[in-house]
Design a protein that fits this description.
The chain has 302 residues and is of the alpha/beta class. The protein has 10 helices and 13 strands. It starts with a strand and ends with a helix. It binds NADP nicotinamide-adenine-dinucleotide phosphate.
């Protein structure tokens, strides 16, 4: 019988695409989320705050892919939102631990999302997996998230954490948001425009998740990035070129973004350079490493 993969937070950007790819490759897939969704995929419900899950969730599951987490860029970072961003990740990991401890199961591996936010911001160095965690809000969240995921290792399951970069997709996320003003002839760099974005094509990311499911030699943290980085200005100009739109040289000033977005503005005004060497050394082949071709593939479908 084919392997069965349970995906948490599967209704989101990555989970939707990953589900599609896993099914194409002959895997059986089940979803675990906050609400029951109608559809062909078996779906189970959990409540991370009550630490409860539906009976049967782990039935025949071989691998768990953990994607659950409140979107970091979806809302202003009020104190309540910051708490939700953190707890949606740590409590999800805690509930996976509880499920594995209390249910009889055949799970051999958990492959979890993490984020390059782990390292903090800055372009003075290229971050490899051994680098120390940063100390800003996102870095602190990611460190706690990874610690919660690491605790699963005590249960004799293989644990892989993919520190995901900025996912480029045409169905949502950073590229969709950046392309919107460009389409409307209002594209300009943000802040200095010099902040580095370490990006990955969504297809490469989903293939990397599947590679981590299949490759028993993978353990611990891996950067999930293309190994190429572009400044905010370069990416905006590339979108303009693909969409045949001008990009205005005058940037949107950082202070304006801080007024509009508050602390969340850090996410668009700061960046980092992150290495893909470790995933390449593990044998994974990235298909999309050219920025122009990646943006063209996603926005122009070629
Ligand atoms: N996209 C990126 O550029 C990127 C970059 C770095 C890291 N990541 C990480 O990768 C993971 C998946 O990313 P994505 O882009 O697919 O995210 P997404 O589209 O926001 O989906 C995340 C899913 O998590 C669940 N969720 C949302 N709020 C929650 C809450 N308060 N408590 C528990 N579950 C909640 C939802 O699934 P249900 O409604 O089905 O429960 C949601 O569909 C996230 O953890 C994200 O932080 C993404």
């Amino acid at each position: 019988m084919s392997k069965k993969v349970l995906i948490t937070g599967a209704s989101g950007l990555i989970g939707s695409q990953l589900t599609h790819l896993l099914l194409q490759r002959g895997y059986r897939v089940a979803h675990l989320g906050r609400t029951k969704r109608a559809g062909n995929i078996p779906a189970y419900v959990w409540d991370i705050h009550k630490q409860e899950f539906e009976t049967g969730t782990l039935h025949e599951v071989d691998v768990i892919i953990n994607l659950a987490g409140a979107g970091v860029a979806d809302k202003r970072w009020t104190a309540a939102r910051k708490k939700e961003i953190l707890e949606s990740r740590t409590k999800s990991a805690a509930l996976i631990l509880k499920m594995l401890q209390t249910e009889s199961h055949q799970v051999t591996a958990v492959v979890s999302a993490s984020a390059i936010g782990y390292y903090g911001f800055g372009s003075a160095q290229v971050f490899e997996e051994e680098a120390k965690p940063g100390n800003d809000f996102l870095a602190t969240v990611t460190r706690h998230w990874e610690e919660a995921i690491d605790s699963l290792g005590a249960l004799n399951v293989r644990v892989v954490k993919l520190r995901i970069g900025i996912v480029l997709s045409n169905k949502g996320g950073a590229l969709t948001e950046m392309a919107r003003p460009v389409r409307w002839f209002a594209g300009s760099p943000l802040g200095t425009g010099k902040q580095y974005l370490s990006w990955i094509h969504i297809d490469d990311l989903c293939n990397l998740f599947i590679y981590a499911v299949e490759n028993a030699a993978m353990h611990g943290a891996y950067n999930a990035v293309s190994g190429q980085w572009a400044t905010n200005k370069e990416l905006t100009k590339t979108i303009g070129k693909v969409l045949h739109r001008p990009v205005w040289p005058l940037p949107v000033p950082g202070f304006v973004l801080k007024i509009i977005l508050g602390e969340l503005a850090h996410l668009v005004l700061l960046g980092s350079k992150v290495s893909a060497d470790k995933i390449k050394q593990s044998g994974f082949e990235l298909k999309h490493t050219n920025l122009y071709q990646t943006v063209r593939n996603l926005l122009a479908g070629v």
